[in-house]
Amino acid sequence: MSSLLLGMRKVFLDMFLVLQLLLQLLRGAAADRVPAVIVFGDSTADTGNNNFIQTLLRGNYTPYGRDFAGGVATGRFSNGRLAADFVSQGLGLSPAVPAYLDPGHGIHQLASGVSFASAGSGFDDITAQIFSAVTLTQQIEHFKEYKEKLRRELGGAAADHIVARSLYLFSVGASDFLGNYLLFPVRRGRFTLLEYEAYLVGAAEAAVRAVYALGARRVRLPGLPPLGCLPLQRTVNLARPGDCNRWHNMVARRFNRGLRAMASRLSRDLPGAQVVYVDVYRLLADMITRPWAYGFENAVRGCCGTGYFETGVLCSLDNALTCEDADKYVFFDAVHPSQRAYKIIADAIVHAASHRPV
């Protein structure tokens, strides 16, 4: 009998230890769960903020949004959702990240994800001013307001948890080059190209440090895409019409090296920070070089209009020419990826989010 009791005691002890281990694992999973995706950036991340400011850079008309739920043009520069939306869904949150400036979204909805991004914005605040967009500095001010709203509505503990555990995504930088330095002479009069690249890396670092000071810890920095291979840049490549602009691609790669080094340095220097660079350049370049490997048929033109130069309001002028199936195209307009391409980019960001940097 005593041996039986000892055996039963051992079984119960083993079960107790297993249950303890399971509880620890569950607590760890709950503690590691991302409660919200918080987004800063430009037209690649603007989920509708520009609909509520005075600017010409809006995507709230057809054919934008034709593959979004209900076929609604929300202000996203895509036929459907953006990378930030898919990142949110991939982390078990909402399939669409709401825009902060949309008065239809209350703080309880924004508590699980919010985009402060504004089409035309950049790391350089002058870029946003050129296009009457919300500057990155102002986006961070909006984040401060958001924090206070969380505290008022949900309480300090809940607000602190959301801010500390959320994933912060910066999708920005292309407009600084294509819409500012390489197009307008404003910054060329003050900086050489190398100096401007260094200035932007410094501005990116200042932005990350600013949100870190406000409580952010998990930050993802997608690099620039191959700028010279955007359909618009192929069209205006006078030296080799139709080909990628190699110089613009070189600029993007060089800037990305600075961004990557900065992210690694901040992860070391800022206690508790996880600042991770995401190599969007290599991924999108591979989609463009080998579109068939990803299920695409066209990586040279956009789906909208002729696909060579249309973006923004120009897309709405050529609805009759717009392609039937945007899923076959890497780009939806002459600058922005299609929904399917954004999904592939988002998968890379989620993968980076699920791995703690060494």
TrEMBL record:
> What InterPro entries has UniProt attached to this entry?
GDSL, GDSL_lipolytic_enzyme, SGNH_hydro_sf, SGNH_plant_lipase-like
Q: Which residues form the signal peptide?
A: 1-31
A Pfam family annotated for this UniProt entry: Lipase_GDSL
Q: What organism is this sequence from?
A: Miscanthus lutarioriparius
Keywords (A to Z) from UniProt: Signal
Gene3D superfamilies of this UniProt entry? SGNH hydrolase
Name-wise, this protein is: GDSL esterase/lipase
Question: What SUPFAM superfamilies has UniProt attached to this entry?
Answer: SGNH hydrolase
Q: What Gene Ontology molecular function terms does this protein carry?
A: hydrolase activity, acting on ester bonds
Source organism, top-level taxon: Eukaryota
Family (UniProt)? Belongs to the 'GDSL' lipolytic enzyme family.
Task: Report if keyword Signal is assigned.
Answer: yes
